[in-house]
Structure formats: C-alpha cells, structure tokens
Amino acid sequence: MFKIAGSLILGAIIGFIGVVIHNALHPVGIILAIITTAIGINLAGQLFGQRKYKLITAIAWLLIALRAGSYGQSHEILVISNSYGNIFLLGGLLTATVFSLKKI
User: Fold this and answer.
1) Which of 20, 53, 69, 101 has the most neighbouring CB atoms within 10 Å?
2) Which of 53, 63, 64 is nearest to 104 (CA)?
3) pLDDT tens across 40-82, in order?
C-alpha cells in the first residue's frame, strides 16, 4: 500500500517538475524535462523493486501532464500547444512508456 502511494507521489512530482521546466528554458528545458521523466521512472523501479510500480509512476506522470495541458478553472493552461508542449507530451509519453516497460 505504501509503495503504491509512493509511486503515485513520485510520478506526480516528476510530472510537476517536467511541466514547470519544459517551457522555462527553451532549448535546454525540454531536454531536462524528458531526462527527468526517464530518471524518475527508473528511480521508481529501483526504490520499489517491481515493474508495476514503474507503471504506476508513469500513469501518475501522465495524469499530471494531461491535466496541465487542459484548461483550468480560470482558463489557464500550463502546457500550451506549441512545439515545446507537443514534444513534452509526446516525447514524455514515449519515454515514460519505454522506461516503465523496461526490465529493472
């Protein structure tokens, strides 16, 4: 139970860091966001010891990234539909999928 909660919290933290960094430092920020995603999901596998926790972390990352890409209550959006936002969502999803299915 604690491992599932830890995986969810780790995925949310990784997603939040990626959302904040990807558009802050334009040439480097997107690379740092993708690398943070890969390292964070690998860290979840090393911390919790099973592939299913890596998958839970990747799902939590995806939920945060998709929520940041949709309009909020006061019509703000954090992942806008420009090249950096699209690369972050698609590249991050690809990275999260590959690293969550990779053997520990």
Assistant:
1) 53
2) 53
3) 999 999 999 899 999 999 999 999 999 998 888 888 888 888 8
Spatial CB neighbours of 24, under 8 Å, sequence gap ≥ 6: none
Identity of residue 81: S
C-alpha 23: how far from chain center:
14
pTM: 0.92
Neighbours of 23 (CB within 10 A): 17
CA distance 42 to 14: 11
Looking at the chain, the number of H-run helices and the number of E-run strands are: 4, 0
91/96 Cα distance (integer angstroms): 8
Task: Provide the residue ranges of all domains of the chain, joining segments of one domain with +.
Answer: 2-101
